[in-house]
Known about the structure:
The chain has 144 residues and is mainly beta.
Amino acid sequence: MATFSRNFSGSDDARKQLVIRGPLLPAVVGFAQIPPAGVYREISGEALIDTGAVVCAVDLEFLRELGIAPAGMETIATPTGQAILQTYPARLSFPGTGLSDVVFSDFVGADLSHLGACALLGRSVLSSYVLNYDGPAGPFTITG
């Protein structure tokens, strides 16, 4: 089992970053399946851990830039009501963490630019991990 930890302790400002930005993992978005020769690309960013989200989402701009086409639709609940969003086949990897890649045919495509994240990790993925979020001390750890 691999464990990734990010520690925001040391100062009040560092711990505030955990509150403001949230628990982020280094992440790479890529194709779910091996694409035609010469087409393969990946985009790096950070994935936000979101225990309030049922599903996982990938930023629409990343999906467009990679040329990943939608594969279906899914109705999801949001804080403002239900929304019908397109789903995409994609792969998320977490370089430098030791955590396994996540491959789904139904990542929801969403505008995540306001979060500064390339992906949102919901409970559909988090159910395979142990997450420890220690707000007072500053660190978070994910094991799986």
